[in-house]
Specification:
The chain is mainly alpha-helical. It has one domain: Helix Hairpins (Orthogonal Bundle), CATH 1.10.287.2250. Helix content is about 40%, strand content about 5%. It has five helices and two strands. The protein has a two-stranded antiparallel sheet. α1 packs antiparallel against α3. The radius of gyration is 23 Å and the shape is elongated. The protein starts with a strand and ends in a 13-residue tail after the last helix. The relative contact order is 0.09. InterPro entries: Papain-like_cys_pep_sf (IPR038765), Prot_inhib_I29 (IPR013201). This is Cathepsin propeptide inhibitor domain-containing protein. It holds the Pfam family Inhibitor_I29.
Length: about 140
C-alpha cells in the first residue's frame, strides 16, 4: 500500500501490512452500528469536506482546479447564476473562492457561531456595501 502526503504533497510513503489471520467470510453483524449510533447519507458536497479535512491542500495543490473551484458549479446552479462573459465568470468564481475560504477559516476558529455560503458569496465588496445602504463615492463633477 502506498500513502501520499496530502498536506504538503511532498512524497509517497510505502506501507507493508502483514496479516496474521484471514477469513474470506464476513460476519453480517459487523454492519450493525453500535447502540445509540445512527447511520445517515454522506453529506454533500464531498469537495467541501475535503477542504475541511485538509484546508492547506487547496492552497498548495498542483491541480489546476481546486476543491473550492469545484464547489462553484453547484453554487451557480443553486442560485441560478449566469454571467455575461468568461471574464465575469472568472471574477465571480474568485470572489466565491475567497468567501468559501473565509467561511471555513471562521468556522475552524471555534467561535460560538458558525457562518456559511449564501447567495452573496460571488459579490464584490462594493456590491455588498450597496446592499447595506452604503452609497458609492460621488465623482467631483457630481458634487455641484
Amino acid at each position: 500500500m502506498e500513502g501520499f502526503n496530502t498536506l504538503l504533497e511532498s512524497h509517497n510513503d510505502k506501507y507493508t501490512i502483514d496479516y496474521s489471520d484471514f477469513s474470506p467470510q464476513t460476519e453480517s453483524d459487523i454492519f450493525i452500528p453500535p447502540l445509540g449510533m445512527t447511520c445517515g447519507e454522506f453529506p454533500e458536497p464531498v469537495e467541501e469536506h475535503q477542504i475541511l479535512a485538509n484546508p492547506i491542500q487547496d492552497y498548495v495543490s498542483t491541480s489546476p482546479v481546486s476543491h473550492a473551484h469545484r464547489l462553484f458549479g453547484p453554487f451557480k446552479e443553486k442560485f441560478n447564476r449566469q454571467y455575461k462573459s468568461e471574464k465575469e465568470h472568472e471574477e465571480r468564481e474568485n470572489y466565491f473562492i475567497h468567501s468559501q475560504r473565509f467561511v471555513h477559516s471562521t468556522n475552524r476558529a471555534g467561535l460560538s457561531f458558525s457562518v456559511g455560503i449564501n447567495n452573496f458569496a460571488d459579490w464584490t465588496k462594493a456590491e455588498k456595501a450597496r446592499m447595506r445602504g452604503v452609497l458609492p463615492p460621488r465623482k467631483k463633477d457630481d458634487r455641484n
